[in-house]
Amino acid sequence: MRWQDREGSNNIEDRRGSSGGGGGKSLSIIGIIVLLVGAYYGVDLSGLVGGNAALTQQTQTQQTKSAPSQQEQELAKLSSVVLKETENVWGAYFQKAGAKYKNPTMVFYSSATSTPCGTGQASAGPFYCPVDNKLYIDLSFYDTMKNQLGAEGDAAFAYVIAHEVGHHVQTLLGTIQKVHQAQSQVSQKESNALSVKLELQADCYAGVWGYYAQKDGLFEAGDIEEAYNAAESVGDDTLQERAQGYSVPHTFTHGSSANRKQWLQRGLQTGDINQCNTFATS
């Protein structure tokens, strides 16, 4: 990706060194499945990732800030640039539709941090909280992608960020609120199916961003393939099969590898948010 000389976002909140300290740890495949259950769309994280808010606050006061590694510094810069690029694309998109895009804030943290959606920890991976319109990310997730998921590269990491921004777009459009309301009135199986549609739409929105970023010269040869590989690597079937040797479709919350790539690809090829209506498909 050609990101090094591009402008970064001002909407960054850096909590590293004051949010549990010490840096995050790579996830196991089981841990990754846990994070995919609900962390991405703003449910209460405290029950998912464990931890206690009071304990987390106590830990925060006991940690000293350590200097970030060279890789972490680069990832912070990359993330800031990608966020800025999403601000540019979605700002223009909303303006064209006669609306105003509200920029989200990206929060960098280490190990754990408190959020209005519950206690966020590195073991929950990157997630978006619709209550405060913030994206939370422990930059050590890059190593998890590389070492646990086989999804390496700047474009793969950019896809993760763009996916979370996709949830922000859904929040601004009222989609997440409607889905959460519907989920409270249906069975677990039906709730999971709604979650899949929500996540696949966020993949498609990530692709819409990628369509314009590609036109703007952000991507180089091989970057699109990196993004596709990242989308496939976090498919529910792939993760479940790696963890237990088989998949259980009715428990999917994010979609199969094939579907995640399909919807990311649709956004990348069309650049049209109207082509991302996953709720109109079976």
Automatic annotation (TrEMBL):
InterPro entries: Uncharacterised_pept_Zn_put (IPR007343)
Region: Disordered, residue numbers: 1-23
Keywords recorded for this protein, A-Z: Membrane, Transmembrane, Transmembrane helix
Localization (cell): Membrane
Primary location group: membrane
Composition bias, Basic and acidic residues: 1-17
Lipid bilayer topology: Single-pass membrane protein
Transmembrane portions of the chain: 26-43
Organism domain of life: Bacteria
GO cellular component: membrane
Protein name (record): Putative neutral zinc metallopeptidase
Organism: Kingella negevensis
